[in-house]
Automatic annotation (TrEMBL):
PANTHER family per record: SPERM ACROSOME MEMBRANE-ASSOCIATED PROTEIN 4
Main localization of the protein described in the UniProt heading: membrane
Membrane topology recorded in Swiss-Prot or TrEMBL: Lipid-anchor; GPI-anchor
Annotated signal sequence range: 1-25
Keyword Transmembrane: no
Keywords, comma-separated and alphabetical: Cell membrane, Disulfide bond, Glycoprotein, GPI-anchor, Lipoprotein, Membrane, Signal
Subcellular location: Cell membrane
GO cellular component, one term: plasma membrane
Lineage: Eukaryota, Metazoa, Chordata, Craniata, Vertebrata
Name of the protein described by the UniProt record: UPAR/Ly6 domain-containing protein
C-alpha cells in the first residue's frame, strides 16, 4: 500500500539506468567469450572487453561439410572475415571468423533464449517487490 510513495522516483531511475552503458568512461566493445568447443558441448559464456582495435567475433569451424566447432571472443580487424585452418586433436578444421561491432553482437540465438527466463524473473521481482 505504501510502496508507491516510498519509491516515487523508481520509474525515472529505471528508465535512466538503461542509458548507463552509453556513458561509460571507455568506449571498448563488450563481447561474449567461449573457447573452441565441439558443437555438442556447452559452455557458460563470459563477458570480455575488446580493445579499441578489436571487434566481437564468432568463429565457425567446419570439417568437410559439417559444422564441428564454435568459438566467440574478440579479434583484430585484419583477421575478421578470414578462414584459417585449425588443427585440434589431430583433425584440421577450416574456421571462418565473422565480426560485428556493437555490444554483445556475438551472442547468437542460444544466449538470447537462455537469458529470457532471467529477464522475465528480474522484471517480475521488480514489479512485485517494489
Amino acid at each position: 500500500m505504501g510502496s508507491p510513495q516510498v519509491f516515487p522516483m523508481l520509474p525515472a531511475l529505471l528508465y535512466m539506468a538503461q542509458f548507463l552503458p552509453a556513458v561509460r568512461c571507455n568506449n571498448n566493445l563488450l563481447c561474449y567469450y567461449s573457447p573452441f568447443m565441439y558443437r555438442n558441448q556447452t559452455f557458460n559464456l563470459t563477458m570480455t572487453e575488446c580493445t579499441t582495435t578489436e571487434r566481437c567475433m564468432k568463429g565457425n569451424g567446419r570439417y568437410g561439410n559439417h559444422n564441428a566447432l564454435s568459438t566467440r571472443g574478440c579479434m583484430g580487424l585484419r583477421d575478421c572475415g578470414q578462414t584459417r585452418p585449425l588443427r585440434l586433436k589431430g583433425t584440421t578444421y577450416n574456421v571462418t571468423y565473422l565480426c560485428c561491432d556493437y555490444n554483445y553482437c556475438n551472442a547468437g540465438l542460444c544466449v538470447t533464449v537462455k537469458s529470457l527466463p532471467f529477464v522475465v524473473a528480474i522484471t517480475y521481482v521488480l514489479l512485485t517487490v517494489l
